[in-house]
Amino acid sequence: MKQGKRSVTITDIARELSISPSTVSRALNNHPAIKEETKRKVITLANKLNYQPNLLALNLLNKKTNNIGVVVPEITSHFFAAIISGIQDILNASGYNIIMCQSNESYREEIKIIENLSSVRVDGFLIAPSSKTRKLDHFVKLKNSGVPIVIFDRDCQGLDVDKVLLDDYDGAFQAVDYLVKSGCKKVAHLGGSLSLSTSIHRRQGYIDALKSNNLSVRDDHIFHTKGFKHSDGIRAAKSLLKLKDPPDAIFAVNDRIAIAAMYVAKMYGFKIPEDISIIGFDDEPHSSYFTPSLSTVRQPAYSIGLLSARILLQNLSNPHDSPGFRREIFRPELIIRDSSRLRPDT
Amino acid sequence: MKQGKRSVTITDIARELSISPSTVSRALNNHPAIKEETKRKVITLANKLNYQPNLLALNLLNKKTNNIGVVVPEITSHFFAAIISGIQDILNASGYNIIMCQSNESYREEIKIIENLSSVRVDGFLIAPSSKTRKLDHFVKLKNSGVPIVIFDRDCQGLDVDKVLLDDYDGAFQAVDYLVKSGCKKVAHLGGSLSLSTSIHRRQGYIDALKSNNLSVRDDHIFHTKGFKHSDGIRAAKSLLKLKDPPDAIFAVNDRIAIAAMYVAKMYGFKIPEDISIIGFDDEPHSSYFTPSLSTVRQPAYSIGLLSARILLQNLSNPHDSPGFRREIFRPELIIRDSSRLRPDT
C-alpha cells in the first residue's frame, strides 16, 4: 500500500452518510428493506470513493472463490497453451476465473504452487503434473481436503481422481506402423525423457509397431533426449545419423525434435523423404511451413482442455463420493505431409 | 466441497484437545506464552487432521498475500512466455507467487481479470495490456487503490505508472536500413493490427528507414494483417507477391508472418534471398531451422521480464509517491541469417 492510501471500507461510507455500516452493506447488496434513495446515495458515494468490496471477507463467509487453479509444467508449449484455451472457454462461460501457475517441470515448484493456491482457496484444480513428480503426497492431501481435482495429459498412477489423457501409445503406433508400411525398414526413435509418462508410452508404441511388423528393435536406433529444446534434438540426431548403418526413418517424440532431425538430415546430405522419412508429434502451428512440410501426430489439445474443464464443473456442481473416477482417453490423429514417403496403397 | 468433508478449523482442534481456540492459534503461531508441550500436541493433531491455516483470514489481518498478478494478452507466444520466465525467476526467488491470467486480447476479459485479481488482493501487478484496450479506467482505478503496477511491452499512453518497453521503432529501422544497404530497392512491409502500439511503431520505423535512405514509401507495398496466425500472413503475402511490380524485400511484423511470406515466396518461385530478402521480428526458437534460416529482430524478452519484476519489487518494499515514474526502454538486436542478402560492407 502506498503511504496515506488505504482501502475504503463500508465504515467509511457509513460515517460519511451518517448511517449504520449494516445499512451500507445491505444497500450495496440491493436489500429490499433499504430505501431506493439510500441505495442511490450509498452507491454514488461508493463509486466516488473507489470502494472495492472485500471479497476475501465475503469468501470467508460463503467459502466459494469462483477461482479455478490450473497448473501446467510449462506454458511455452503450443500443446499446453491450446489445452488452456479449451479450459478457459468453458470456465469463463460459467463465470469462473482461471489462476494459472507453471511448475517449470519442478516437483518442488509444484508443491509450492499447490500449497499457495490451496491457501487462497480455489474451488477446484486442473493439473498436468511435472515430469519430476514421483511422490503424490501433495495431490493426495489436496484430494483429502475435499477440493475437486482433474488430472490431464500426464497420468499419475496410484492417484484416484478424474483424468483426461491422450493415447500416446496409439499415436506412436500409428506413426511407426505407417512408416513401415510405406517401405521403411530401419525406423529409429528420437525419444524424450523417460521420466515422462508420455515419452514412455510413445516409446512403447514405437517398439510394439516394429514388433507387429516383424521388425527387430535396435538399441542403436533409439536415443532419448533429456530436454525438449531444438539443441537437444540436434545433438541426438547427429549421433543417430552419423552411424555407419543409419536409419531410413525417424519417429520423433515431438515436432521440435523432428524439426531438429530434419535440419541435421539436410546438413548431412540426406534427402527427405527419399533417403529418410521423418514424423513428429504435436502438429505445432509452424510445422506445415517447413520444407518439406512435417508429417506429425496431431493431439486434440483444445478438446482435452474442454473436457477436463467440463468434468471439473460437474464435480463442483454435483460432488461425488463414489469410489469410481472417470478416465477419458483421446485418440490422436496421424497427419501425413511431405517429410514421409507415401504408402503404396494410398 | 464433497459431502461430509469440510475444512478442519482451529475450533475443531481446540475441542479435541479441550483447550481454547486462542491457545490453538497461538500454539500454531509459536507464541512464547504457550508451553512447548501444548505446542507439540496442537501441531501433531493439526497435521493428523490435515489442518490448513486459513490464509484468507490471515490475509485480512496482515493485508499481504505474497501473490503477484501477471496479466498478458496471450501465453501462447514465445515472446510473452519468455517474459514470464524472467518474471518468475525474480519473484520466486523473493518468495512471491505468480498468478497468471491471459486476456486473449480482449478489453472485457482484461477488466474482469483486474477486478478478480483485485478482489483476491494481489500485492502488485505486472501487465501487458490487450490490443483492444482504449479506455484506461480499470488501470487508473487500480493505481488509485494504491497497488503497485508495472506495465510492460505495450505502452498505455496517459497512464502514469512504471513501464518497461521495447524500442520497436528502432528494431524496425535497423532491419529496413539493413535491407536497403544490402542492395534492396523495393522493401515492402507486412504489418500487424494498427490497434497495437508495437505494430504502429514498427510501421513507423519501416517508413523512416526508407525515407532516411531517400526511398519512397509505396502504399501498395504495405499490408496490415488483422491477426497473427500463419494464415493471416499467407493471405497478405499472396496479395503482395502477386503485384505486377513485386518487392525485392519484405520486413514482416513478426516471425510468424515472415515464415508465411517465405512459404508463399517459394511457392511463387521466388529465390530467397536472391530475388527477395525477408526479415522477421521476435527470433522464435524454430526460426533458425527453416530453409533458408530466417533473419530477424531479437527482443530481449527474458530481460524485460527480469527488469519489470525487479521494479515491482522495489515499489513493494519502498513505495514512492513521487510524480515521476520509470520508463525503461530496451533496444532490440538485428540477427542476420540466410533469408536476407549480405551487406556488401560486411
Number of strands of chain A: 12
> How is the CATH topology of the largest domain in chain A named?
Rossmann fold
The share of residues in helices of chain A is: 40-55%
Oligomerization category of the chains in this entry: homodimer
How would a crystallographer describe the biggest sheet of chain A?
A: 6 strands, parallel
Give the topology string of chain A: H per helix, E per strand: HHHHEHEHEHEEHEHEHEHEEHEE
Strand arrangement, major sheet of chain A: 2-1-3-4-5-11
Strand percentage of chain A lies at 5-15%
Distance between the termini of chain A: 68 Å
Number of helices of chain A: 12
Query: Largest inter-chain interface?
Result: A-B, 68 and 68 residues
Question: Topology, please?
Answer:
The structure is a homodimer of 346-residue chains.
Chain A: H1 10-17, H2 21-28, H3 36-48, H4 55-62, E1 67-72, H5 78-93, E2 97-102, H6 107-119, E3 124-127, H7 137-144, E4 149-153, E5 162-166, H8 168-181, E6 187-191, H9 197-212, E7 222-224, H10 230-241, E8 249-252, H11 255-267, E9 277-279, E10 296-298, H12 301-317, E11 327-330, E12 333-335
Parallel strand pairs in A: 1-2, 1-3, 3-4, 4-5, 5-11, 6-7, 6-8, 8-9
Antiparallel strand pairs in A: 10-12
Helix pairs in contact in A: 1-2, 5-12, 8-9, 10-11
Can you describe this structure?
The structure is a homodimer of 346-residue chains. The first copy, chain A, has 346 residues and is an alpha/beta fold. In chain A, strand 3 (124-127), helix 7 (137-144) and strand 4 form a beta-alpha-beta unit. The model of chain A has no long low-confidence stretch (mean pLDDT 88). In chain A, helix 5 (78-93) runs parallel beside helix 12, helix 8 runs parallel beside helix 9 (197-212) and helix 10 (230-241) crosses helix 11 (255-267). Chain A has helices at residues 10-17, 21-28, 36-48, 55-62, 78-93, 107-119, 137-144, 168-181, 197-212, 230-241, 255-267, 301-317; strands at 67-72, 97-102, 124-127, 149-153, 162-166, 187-191, 222-224, 249-252, 277-279, 296-298, 327-330, 333-335. Chain A is elongated, with a radius of gyration of 27 Å.
